[in-house]
């Protein structure tokens, strides 16, 4: 979600320099386990397609998901929410993970060697945390997703102007 004072960075070729705002989509997903009380954090579990990689992550049931359009996120259709390292635990599959890096080699794109699914990774924006793919979470703990477009095509400018992303991996 773009804050009012946050400068807008438009990645589209036809809208360079325009005043159009980034779109934010909210997808509400029912949570059958909800007691009606607002929860600060819940334990989400998830993993890859074949089940070799399993993890748990503590985060809000209302996810703030980034949709980045950098070269690799576009190819992988990578959507992720960011958590501090101490809120993430790899339960199984360390030996089944492979890692791909490029450019600055800061981001560690981890994926299952068997099925190829990237269920989490270490993002360049938050190398002290993890980016978790909400579509790799097990059902039942997510109440909603707020999707924020992130202009990865202009990564440095986007990071410089973003007011909250750097703090999302802090406890």
TrEMBL record:
Domain CENP-V/GFA positions: 44-156
Species: Umbra pygmaea
Alphabetic keyword roster: Metal-binding, Zinc
GO terms for MF: metal ion binding
Name of the protein in its database record: CENP-V/GFA domain-containing protein
InterPro entries according to UniProt: CENP-V-like, CENP-V/GFA, Mss4-like_sf
Highest taxon of the lineage: Eukaryota
One Pfam family linked to the record: GFA
Family: Belongs to the Gfa family.
Classification of source organism: Eukaryota, Metazoa, Chordata, Craniata, Vertebrata
Annotated PANTHER family: CENP-V_GFA DOMAIN-CONTAINING PROTEIN (PTHR28620:SF1), CENTROMERE PROTEIN V (PTHR28620)
Gene3D superfamilies in the cross-refs: 2.170.150.70
